[in-house]
Design goal:
alpha+beta, C8orf32 fold, 16-stranded antiparallel β-sheet, 7-stranded antiparallel β-sheet, spermatogenesis, flagellum
Length: 699
């Protein structure tokens, strides 16, 4: 607003008249801006920056050194030339006052720092820490620059700041970590400036881009004709669609009403001041230049339409003014800072004088040379900011309000510090089925430091299906567990870390009537086993006999095997079925490449003959074989007798394995129920602060 008022003092040119019209228009919107500022949440109502205590700050905060005074004079001289040559440009953010009311050049406010935390060695960790640790404050006026820029140490102390405070702190950490990072003063959309993400999809819900399938390079392959279609049927279908179109249009109109309202047109579009971070490619093996929004910590392309223009950028060594056209946003900008046509540097990085553009052609006179060429080579003073320090306790507990809530389109993300919740919960994502966020569809929770190694839980609110995910190292080798209740036989799916198991089991599903097991990497090539279970004896249940003494009867066991290339196909079993109650065993063998019908062997019980334990009775009546591709030995009765003997022994072992699987599932449910009832969190041996708290609690 101050910049717009200054233009009134100049003569009334057409451009000035336009600026006055814009000023009148902005005055009419002043009330809307006030309401907009009031709508931004704040954890400490009425927080006043002018009331903070600055008496303890070092002398560098309160005074300027001789070199800093010289720097400010050079900056003022640059601004005079800039405003003279570019009168239509907005003011630059060059030397605002700090918390002590002293003017400081923006480059000296940066304090490159590498904090002693592994995550902060990477840009993503730095961005996440800054956006989580600080509370966003809007600019006092969304279209004008702030009058002050506080030091990163003060911002960290009070854990709050505007976009420029966020940017300076984040850029200090990135430069300290070795990135070629710059603070950016520019313009962005209303949603980005006000941290409104209610129209965006939550990053945790975004699907990865689909990789297009490569076309078959063989152009000589046979192209089969498409399925023939009747033209008459197509005409009838089109007529039906025309008849149903009016009803569909009404339904679409109803859907449009229920949809989330699109954001209204922003009257301040292109005028809203914002600050963010620019990371150039090159250093730290960054492949492509990108932006970082300090409010969210998200990575953005330089062509993102949310960024509407750039006025200037700076790092801890220099300051550059953008001389490129931003009417199309930032997508066409060049970030080659060595290009003097695109970027006007404030202090020459060489011994050659800095040449600012002039309005008139060059003249070979000493006067114009003195005015046009000014020796701007200058060594930037060291930062006046004290060393940036973050304790381990502050790093582990970044949320000043206890937690952080982010609203997205049909989703809500909540974050907590580690050890803030007794169950280790650190993050929860709630997905809603409606735009008003009243009907929950799905909930995802993330955990840390749990001794049972649970790290994520998904809850489907429609089906009430719960899925727990575990890190490697659980005593029961659990990887995932899906259930609706921890009661036995209510439908459980368990996944294991199969490489740590001897039997190669990676998944098991069990309910009241069946059990299915899946295997990987077994020497016998078994990959699936399906068991059908019957109902328990109701009389024993009524008598109060427990499930251990009254097991479910095994009705049938099916096993499926992969092809063993070392065996002939007529000796390599593909499917094996044990009908335990009916006393039938059925074998199906694999097929060779040229075969069309699989070989089969069936052993049945003789009708009318009483079954005796451990008796093997074989005759032509109770054995059926169909092996068209096998040799004569497979039709020999002695061979079939030995095969039946082996299958009977296998059936005994399988029945015992089924009982062991049932017992294992019961043990898993008992252990999981105990773990959920007595949740314990582990503490790293390096976390001395947390261990001290635990010791004080036990004393």
């Amino acid at each position: 607003m101050e910049a717009l008022e200054e233009t009134e003092e100049v003569g009334q040119t057409p451009e000035d008249a336009n600026s006055l019209n814009i000023s009148d228009f902005l005055d009419d919107l002043e009330a809307d801006i006030t309401v907009e500022e009031a709508s931004v949440p704040s954890d400490v109502p009425g927080f006043d920056w002018s009331s903070i205590d600055t008496s303890h700050l070092p002398s560098s905060y309160k005074t300027n050194s001789r070199q800093e005074e010289e720097l400010l004079q050079l900056a003022d001289h640059f601004l005079e030339q800039y405003t003279h040559l570019c009168p239509d440009r907005k003011p630059l953010f060059v030397h605002p006052v700090n918390e002590c009311g002293v003017q400081k050049f923006v480059s000296t406010t940066l304090r490159p720092t590498l904090l002693p935390f592994p995550e902060l060695y990477y840009w993503s960790g730095c961005a996440s820490f800054v956006c989580d640790y600080l509370i966003m404050e809007p600019l006092k006026c969304p279209i004008t620059l702030p009058s002050s820029l506080y030091s990163p140490t003060t911002i960290l102390k009070y854990q709050r700041g505007n976009c420029f405070d966020f940017t300076v702190l984040l850029c200090s950490l990135l430069i300290g970590a070795g990135y070629d990072a710059y603070c950016v003063h520019g313009y962005a959309t209303r949603e980005m400036c006000s941290l409104d993400q209610t129209q965006e999809v939550c990053p945790l819900l975004r699907k990865p881009p689909e990789v297009p399938e490569e076309e078959d390079p063989n152009k000589y392959r046979i192209k089969y004709p498409l399925e023939p279609q009747s033209k008459f049927e197509l005409q009838q279908k089109a007529k039906k669609e025309e008849e149903t179109e009016p009803g569909q249009e009404e339904e679409r109109e109803e859907e449009v009403v229920t949809e989330v309202e699109k954001p209204k047109r922003d009257p301040l579009h292109g005028l809203r001041v914002h600050a963010w971070v620019l990371v150039l490619s090159g250093k730290r093996k960054v492949p492509e230049t990108f932006f970082i929004n300090p409010f969210t910590g998200n990575h953005h392309s330089t062509t993102d339409e949310c960024f509407l223009g750039i006025e200037s950028i700076w790092n801890h060594r220099n300051y550059w003014v953008n001389m490129q056209d931003c009417r199309q946003g930032c997508k066409d900008l060049s970030f080659d800072l060595s290009d003097s046509i695109c970027w006007e540097i404030m202090f020459s990085e060489s011994n050659e004088p800095c040449q600012l553009p002039t309005e008139s052609p060059k003249k070979d006179t000493d006067d114009t040379q003195e005015k046009g060429e000014i020796d701007m080579s200058f060594e930037m003073p060291l930062s006046w900011v004290a060393r940036i320090k973050v304790s381990y306790r502050e790093y582990e507990n970044p949320f000043s309000q206890g937690k952080k809530v982010i609203l997205y389109n049909k989703a809500k993300l909540e974050k907590w510090a580690a050890y803030a919740n007794g169950d280790g919960l650190v993050e929860r994502l709630t997905v809603y089925a409606d735009s008003d966020c009243t009907e929950e569809a799905e909930v995802k929770e993330w955990f840390k430091h749990r001794e049972d190694l649970l790290y994520m839980r998904e809850v489907n609110k429609q089906t009430q299906l719960i899925t727990d995910y575990f890190r490697p190292g659980h005593p029961l080798l659990l990887k995932a567990h899906s259930y609706t209740s921890l009661e036995p036989e209510t439908g459980h799916t368990v996944e294991y870390y199969h490489t740590a198991r001897v039997d190669g089991l990676w998944k098991r599903f069990e309910n009241a009537t069946e059990m299915t097991e899946y295997f990987v990497g077994r020497e016998d090539f078994l990959h699936m086993r399906h068991i059908e279970l019957g109902e328990r004896d109701k009389k024993m249940q009524m008598a109060g006999i427990g499930a251990d003494a009254n097991p479910r009867p095994i009705v049938q066991i099916k096993e499926y095997f992969h092809r063993n290339p070392e065996k002939p196909a007529d000796e390599d079993i593909e499917e094996r079925i044990f009908m335990v109650i009916d006393d039938i065993i059925q074998l199906t063998y694999h097929l060779e490449v040229h075969d069309t019908i699989a070989s089969k062997v069936v052993f049945c019980r003789v009708i009318g003959r009483e079954k005796r334990e451990d008796e093997i009775f074989l005759s032509r009546e109770n054995s059926v074989t169909y092996q068209p591709w096998s040799s004569e030995k497979h039709r020999n009765m002695l061979h079939l007798y030995n095969l039946l003997w082996e299958l009977r022994e296998e059936q005994k072992l399988l029945k015992q394995q089924v009982r062991d699987s049932e017992a294992e599932m019961l043990n898993i449910l008992t252990v999981r129920e105990d773990e959920e009832a007595n949740i314990k969190l582990s503490v790293s041996m390096f976390n001395t602060a947390k261990r001290g708290q635990q010791h004080e609690a036990t004393v």
